[in-house]
Amino acid sequence: MSLGWSIFVIVLVVANIVGCVWLLFANRSAPVRGTRPGEAMDHEYDGIQELNNPLPAWWSWLFVTTIVFAIVYLFAYPGLGSFGGWLGWSSQSQYDDEIAEAQAIYGPILEAYYARPIPELLDDPRAIEIGARLFANNCATCHGSDARGGDGFPNLTDDDWLYGGDPDTIVTTIRNGRIGNMPGMGPVLGPEGVKQMAQYVLQLSGRKHDAAMAAQAEPKFKQICAACHGPEGRGRQNVGAPNLTDDVWLHRGQLEDIEYQITNGRINQMPAHAQLLSDEKIHLLALYVSSLSHRR
Amino acid sequence: MPTVSADRPGVDRPDAPSGEVRLYEKWRKIYPKWVAGRWQAMRRVVLALLLVVFYVTPWLSWNGVPLVWLDLPHRKFHLFGAVFWPQEFVLLSWLLMLAAFSLFFVTVFAGRVWCGWACPQTVWTLVYVWLEKWIEGDRTQRMRLDRGPWNLRRIRLKALKWFCWALLALSISFTLVAYFEPAREWGAKVASLDLGRTEWFWLAFPALLTFLFQGVLREQVCFHMCPYARFQSVMFDRDTLIIGYDTERGEPRGSRSRTTDPETAGLGSCVDCGLCVHVCPTGIDIRDGLQYQCIACAACIDVCDSVMDRMGYARGLIRYSSENRIEKKQAAKLRPRLWGYGAMLAAMAAILIVSLWNRVPLDIDVIRDRNRLYREFWDGSVENVYTLKVMNRETRDRVYQIGVEGNFPLELDTGLASNRVEVAAGGQVSVPARVRVRSWKLPDPQQPIRFTVTTVDDPRVEAGEPSRFVHPDESS
Question: Do the Cβ atoms of B304 and B276 come closer than 8 Å?
Fold first, then answer.
């Protein structure tokens, strides 16, 4: 805060403390005409009188103690304007201390797991439990608390991987996030072409389809779509293009949904977690995700 | 009702002071005289029993578990063989209400018996005062010591007293902590002085407090800190049992020889010896009538009875009675207030006993996945995902059967064999659960369902928790 405001605060604080001290000592005695301690005083409200009973002196000394405490406190901690206090406390430093304390406790545990490769940790139930708790706190909001995903959020319990299911790739996915980008093919194919392509896609997954329309779309698929999805439609993990032959539909699998996707494309994003989670935690998360699909 | 008008001090009331008056008074130390008598004997037995219970209980165990152990870090409260979890907090509220109503009931009936006979402040103060008497001497000796100079003797006696008080204070704080950490382990730690910062604090801080409140401040706590002393005036009526001075019998007071006949001399039974004031731990004169400071310890009764015995008069000039009985010679009576509080007390006791009897040592909490309302499959079925927390509050491992009920066909999938989960004794397990509906014609997008968890070996022990099932709106 600026010097002016700082001085304003200091003046107010000091004035209040001085005021309290004055108030306390000014009220230690009072003119009480003609009344001894214990007697009724000379006023009455609706028949209720006030007796002149003195308070114990140690109460006023208690008050003095609080004033002394306040003065010491104001030098030790922030309170007098922009003066930071002799102890150098701030809420930021308290936060940093708490983080450091937590790190001292949990750091060695997490580092011990980080040193071991994920395939080895698959046999360690305690490591998987830690991964499960981290998952519940960080991933379950999108992927579901049972990790089976949903509309637009991949199912992590199956063996179907957009970008690859080996532990290193999972770590990369969590760290850097992913942006899946399919361009819309509506203008390229035209409405009829989209309908035919949708039938071909159904055929790829072995679903009920119109064979004639699918046959018409096949050459266009190998010319346009295979660039990302591969010549047989088995997908390319280096661009994150899904496998179209596995009957797994991330963005709903009804005919109208497939036609919509072909027409408009899709951008599907997973946020990057490298800034949010330490490498040790990501290691354990990748372990947990591996355990969901690879565990036998 | 006397109203004091603006009279002129020195003129209308020649002895009244004028000018300034100090609004705070210096604290005068009270030196209660030690007294023996039937009430004090009874009281000391009760107080000794309470002290024994306080000191011994943390050392008692049942089945290897301490009888009373408030395990805060693990949030498990062991009381006489049962384990209470924070989820059962409502039992504590019944207990507190029961305590409040018994307090009201006892206060209306018997006045301040709690203060003089059971309150920890009184019990511990008595021990501190007894130590002071043992070291510094009886009332006269103590007063003489404090009025005298700070010579070597005084320093020695005070130092010894403070040292004994410190040991007493530490024994109290040690025992207090022993209710929260098993006594033997805590004792071993203290004996080897192997204590962390927090442990040093909890050994020193309560000791400091008891030293201050029971050793130094004593009656100041009762006068100025304890709310019970003040709301007496609401609870008492003229039939409440109090300690009262029979003014009619005692007045006019005055000293006389044993051979004088009080009737002829125009004197009441009170010989104005002042002993009732000397023995009072709160320093009041009971002959002034009922006062808020009186803790009903009956020291004045015992000492007055002993004087009456020596004078050959009947006992009971000061006695446990009620205002009506003393002043109007009425008989003791039960009245509507007592019946009212008694009924409330009985009701609260019944609620507590029934709650304890019906305790089920099994809990289930249901947390529905919120970010996603439902999960659709392209075959038309709809799934909701939940996290179930199953808590086993028993002292042995158990296997539980999880189920779900609703007014439409549901499938439950927890990923566990037969939807059974094993939970260790005193443990808690998180189970992700999926509830799936294949085909439905339900009018409302939200349907109430209920998860149940039943002990496989003992189907009587079961619990349930309602939740919702959400699916797409029919109209969309």
Answer: yes
pLDDT of A45-72, one tens digit each?
998 888 878 888 898 899 999 999 999 9
Give every CB contact of residue A28 below 8 A, 6+ residues apart in sequence. Answer: A60, B22, B23, B24
Tally of residues, chain A = 296
Q: Which two structure tokens, joined as six digits, stand for B254?
A: 């005055």
> Is cis: bond before B252, omega within 30 of 0?
yes
Contact yes or no for A147/A139 (Cβ under 8 A): yes
Which residues 33-52 on chain A approach chain B with CB closer than 8 angstroms? 33-37, 39-42, 44, 47, 49, 52
Residues in chain B: 476
Taking only Cα atoms into account, the Rg of chain B, rounded to an integer number of angstroms, comes to 33
- Which of B224, B378, B432 shows the shortest C-beta gap to A146? B432
Identify which of B42, B130, B50, B125 has the alpha carbon closest to the alpha carbon of residue B320: B42
**A148 vs B contacts (CB less than 8 Å):** 375, 385, 434
Burial string for B358-376 (b: 16+ CB within 10 Å, else e) reads: eeebbbbbbebbeebbbbb
Examine the predicted complex and report whether its ipTM is higher than 0.90.
Answer: no
Using alpha carbons, list the distances in angstroms from residue A96 to A108, B198, B362, B369. Answer: 18, 21, 40, 33
B19 lies within 8 A of chain A by CB = yes
Q: pLDDT tens digit string along B417-440?
A: 999 999 998 899 999 999 999 876
The DSSP call for residue B23 is S
The alpha-carbon gap from A246 to the nearest alpha carbon of chain B, in Å, equals 14
pTM, 2 dp: 0.80
| Residue A268 to residue B89: CA distance in whole angstroms | 47
* Chain A CB contacts of B28 below 8 Å: none
For an interface test with B, the pick among A24, A25, A29, A33 (most B C-beta atoms closer than 10 Å) comes out as A33
